[in-house]
Amino acid sequence: SGGTPASAATIAVFVSSSAKGRVFRSAKLVAPAVVRAERSCHTFRARIPAQPKRCVSPNPTIAVDASTGPRSGRVYVVWGSTSLNQSQDVYVAAFDPDLRPVLGVGHLKQVNPAEGFPGPDQFLPTAALDQRTGDLWACYYQTVGSPRRRSRFTCTTSEDGGKSWLAPLAATTVLSDETHRPANVANGYGDYEGLAAADGRALMTWTDGRRLKRLGEEIYAARLGIRRG
Questions:
Q1: Among 31, 151, 164, 192, which residue has the fewest nearby CB atoms (within 10 Å)?
Q2: Rounded Cα distance, 7 and 24, in Å
Q3: CB 100 within 8 A of CB 53
Q4: Buried b (16+ CB within 10 A) or exposed e, 149-165
Q5: What number of CA atoms fall less than 13 Å from residue 88's CA on the CB side?
């Protein structure tokens, strides 16, 4: 749901749960996902230089802690929204098993580091929970350089339930540009990134256009791990 003020469109992200998948509880507000009016695209999407046609949605992802650790049962929601610096950033909220906010409305955490104005765009996030360690992983595309058309898939990890995040680590050093042919310009990167985490490591997959002339768009994968002191 959402309104359309003169300055921005606010599309709210909600979360709900069901014990057996038949009857769901009343939805709980996670947070508004703000799209500035001058960058609005299909109302709930934000137009960014790296994906100007399809634009980018909040792309909310849920991860649940099913481990036996201290945060067992916690529900995490990771999504993208326009920040005060007018770039796209990634945020996380957390709820207990009864969907009471732990990092909820008014206590949201930004996943990617704080940036100046205007910062790079972080968009189309995905998340996964390492059930052995309880670590929460989040990956997203991040634009590099000006005019923010090229990006690379980047990941980070939280070891304390989303309160703080390690310095982001690029899954690839090669930049991708989906804004020109022979890329599928109408769809850009799409909304289908993948992430799985286990035993202190994560495997991620993403759309990549590094060799458009030769191969067109391809799916790439990488594996990253946490180096613990």
A1: 164
A2: 34
A3: no
A4: bbbbbbbbbbbebbeeb
A5: 28
Distance of CA 29 to the CA centre of its chain: 18
Q: What is the pLDDT of residue 210?
A: 86
Residue-level pLDDT at 4: 38
Nearest to 191 by CA among 145, 225, 143, 141: 141
pLDDT tens per residue, range 84-143:
888 999 999 999 999 999 986 666 799 999 888 888 999 999 999 999 999 999 999 999
DSSP E strands: which ranges in 107-217? 109-110, 122-129, 136-143, 150-158, 169-170, 176-177, 194-198, 201-208
Burial of 75: CB neighbours in 10 Å, binned 0-12, 13-18, 19+: buried
- In this structure, which amino acid lies at residue 113? P
Task: Report CA-CA distances (Å) from 2 to 11, 14, 25, 102, 110.
Answer: 5, 12, 21, 24, 22
3-class state of residue 115 by DSSP = coil
> CB within 8 A of 140, min separation 6: which ones?
80, 90, 111, 112, 122, 123, 124, 125, 126, 153, 154, 155, 193
pTM over 0.70: yes
Helix (H, G, I), strand (E, B) or coil at 106: coil
C-beta separation of 129 from 110 below 8 A: no
Q: How is residue 142 annotated by DSSP?
A: E
One DSSP character per residue, 29-72 reads EEEEEEEEGGGEETTTEEEETTEEEEEE----EEEE--SSSTTT
